[in-house]
């Protein structure tokens, strides 16, 4: 799977997937579940690089002291919105407002789709940001389009 970055605006971000074949309905459902799960973790603040206590502790985690004060005092890192996933031929795209979530979120998504491509449906390209010239984006998205608004 090739990963490409284009113009990047975390508050107005399109993520594009190009498959080797037109995805089936089941494959589309899996893709949507990946995006939805990733967004839900982000909406709950899961991608906060300021609080990586376990990662920074190293390999020996036995009896590690987890500092809840450090966790509580770190700056919030929340995603704000996600639109529905759109499909056109071998392409899928989804719009996100990543809010204050950290770039760690993108590493997690790239790793997830890399493994997804190996085990479920082949993804030729994952493009983060920008716009495909043959599939323009609608800059007048309505609030009804957002899956994250409740």
Structure notes:
This protein has 150 residues and is α+β, with helices and mostly antiparallel strands. It has a domain at 1-48 and 88-133. The protein is built from four helices and six strands. Strands 1, 2, 3, 4, 5 and 6 form a six-stranded mixed β-sheet that branches. Helix 1 packs antiparallel against helix 4 (104-119). It starts with a strand and ends in a 22-residue tail after the last strand. The model has no long low-confidence stretch (mean pLDDT 87).
Span of the ends, CA to CA: 34 Å
- The total of helices stands at 4
Radius of gyration: 17 Å
Mean pLDDT across every amino acid position: 87
| Low-pLDDT residue intervals, each spanning 5 or more residues | none
Beta content comes to 15-25%
Coarse shape: globular
Total strands: 6
Structural class given helices, strands, pairing?
alpha+beta
The arrangement of helices and strands along the chain is EEHHHEEEHE
The largest β sheet comes out as: 6 strands, mixed
Helix-residue proportion: 25-40%
């Amino acid at each position: 799977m090739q990963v490409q970055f284009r113009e990047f605006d975390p508050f107005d971000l399109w993520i594009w997937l190009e498959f080797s074949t037109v995805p089936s309905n089941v494959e589309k459902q899996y893709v949507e579940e990946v995006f939805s799960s990733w967004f839900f973790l982000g909406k709950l603040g899961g991608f906060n690089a300021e609080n990586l206590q376990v990662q920074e502790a190293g390999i020996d985690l036995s009896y590690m002291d987890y500092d809840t004060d450090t966790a509580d005092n770190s700056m919030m890192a929340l995603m704000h919105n996600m639109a529905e996933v759109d499909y056109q031929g071998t392409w899928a795209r989804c719009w996100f407002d990543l809010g204050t979530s950290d770039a760690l979120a993108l590493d997690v998504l790239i790793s997830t789709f890399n493994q997804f491509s190996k085990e479920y449906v082949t993804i030729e390209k994952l493009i983060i940001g920008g716009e495909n010239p043959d599939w323009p984006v609608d800059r007048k998205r309505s609030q009804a389009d957002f899956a994250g608004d409740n």
